[in-house]
Amino acid sequence: MNQSHAPALPPIGTENAPARRYDLDWLRILAFALLILYHLGMLYVADWEFHLKSSHLSEPLKWLMLFSSEWRLPLLFFVSGIASRLALRRVPLGRFTGLRSLRLLLPLLLCSYLVVSPQLFFQLKADHGYPHGFGTFLWQYLQPLHPELTRGVFNGLINPTWNHLWFLAYLWAYSMALVALLPLLGWLTRSRVGRAVRELLNRPLSLVLLPALPLALGFLLLSEHFATTRALVDDWNMHSLYFTVFLYGYWLGDAERPWASIRRRRRSLLLLGMAGYALVSAHYLAGMALPRVIEALVVHLNIWLWLLALSGYAAKYLNFDHPLRRYCNRAILPWYILHQTLMIAAAYWLVRQGLGPVLEAVVIGVITVAGCWAGYAVIRRYRPLRLVFGLPLAERERVAGQDDGPLEAAAGGMQS
């Protein structure tokens, strides 16, 4: 193998994986679609903080929101780990790290100023009576040491902020950590312990139970000391969850036997996941007291069960290509970057119009989706905008021989 490629990675199962895992594309697409719906719900769910809230708040909405809030983000990191494993089978390390850095860090840096800044502006106007227009705000936003900031006009809100773009920073950091750990992971895979773990994970019960234990242990050790911040440098409790499932995805990336088991037992995994959701809901929303150790096990077993169940159903029913998949693969990162700013801008205006909760939510959702669609239609036509939003400079640029989208291309392609 060329010296610029990743160290040899011994197969976890067999190397006869499909040429492309379309089901992973669809999982990522559906997870980001759910993200848009989830953020729309955050405008209306009672008691949960968000950048802007409607006057139509709902307590029952918590039950629906909680369903996906536990596993939605871990699913994205899990799929990203799988993509990284498959990419490193054929892509040089330099290309892997270069694409991840270009397609993730550049949009993170530029869009935190160009796209995210209106979110803070509308939040300040709605919640704190900010007296100036957007032009004055933007001038101050670009100067973190501006005197008006130091006098508390921004009410302690972080400036500048990446808000929902935190995912890009975390994915980049985990990718770089993976590259640094490759020699160790290769050695572990070849070691007696690694072979024993692989054999255990080929057993259905072990595949369900064992991966949940490190997740629960991380929660027990870190949750009381580190609050969730989305600030990367001090978010150790969430790193113990997100980075661990990212590594699980890498570990299982091309393992044929575990994937066959997951696909075959998808119904049982779904039923167990529904039972886990019932217990988590009873604990968080119905006030059912659980000892901390039991809470940690229940919550993280629930997360892992849903990752397995969703992966099993996707592997069974979504491993096919479609023009919609190809469009979404390209559009997913620009849509992700744009959606929350469009949503908050629309909500800032619409919550003052006296609409009912259903009509208000529908109109905000339509404006958000239409704005993302129109925004991507413009972005894809201009090379500078393509660069800012993480797209390849040429419309038909191929990465690793496939029509990889920006998040996937950042991994170097999602092929075995």
Distance between the termini: 16 Å
Q: Work out the number of β strands.
A: 0
Number of spatially distinct domains:
1
Radius of gyration: 22 Å
TL;DR of this structure?
By secondary structure, this protein is mainly α. The protein is 67% helix and 0% strand. It has one domain (22-116, 162-410).
Write the topology of this structure:
Elements: H1 22-42, H2 61-69, H3 72-87, H4 93-114, H5 117-128, H6 134-141, H7 147-150, H8 166-190, H9 192-201, H10 204-209, H11 212-222, H12 236-252, H13 256-264, H14 266-284, H15 292-317, H16 323-350, H17 357-379, H18 383-388, H19 406-410
Helix pairs in contact: 1-2, 1-3, 1-15, 1-16, 3-12, 4-8, 5-16, 8-9, 11-12, 11-15, 13-15, 14-15, 16-17
Explain what this protein looks like in three dimensions:
GO terms for molecular function: acyltransferase activity. Keywords: Acyltransferase, Membrane, Transferase, Transmembrane, Transmembrane helix. InterPro entries: Acyl_transf_3_dom (IPR002656), Glucan_succinyl_AcylTrfase (IPR050623). By secondary structure, this protein is mainly alpha-helical. The chain has one domain (22-116, 162-410). The chain has helices at 22-42, 61-69, 72-87, 93-114, 117-128, 134-141, 147-150, 166-190, 192-201, 204-209, 212-222, 236-252, 256-264, 266-284, 292-317, 323-350, 357-379, 383-388, 406-410. It is globular, with a radius of gyration of 22 Å.
